[in-house]
Design a protein that fits this description.
The protein is an alpha+beta fold and about 80 residues long. The protein has one domain. The protein contains two helices and eight strands. The protein is globular.
Amino acid sequence: MTVRHWRDGDFFLPIGMEGKRQKLQDFFSNQKLSRFEKATTWLMESDGKIAWVMGYRMDERFKITAKTTHFLKVMFHKGGMM
């Protein structure tokens, strides 16, 4: 797992979009984030895939289901991580 800021070309599959791919730039615009908010939003990445736009939305591929056998609990508080 890696925590980083977004890069041009990043995309994910937001939960609730039925597995449809969305560029982070478009997601941020839909969320009406300012330039500062975009620049300071953290992402959690696993094997090159964005698992979580921290504070906003998980990726469909990383959601917990009845078939999930292992998971990592991460707590995020805007302004810092715990």
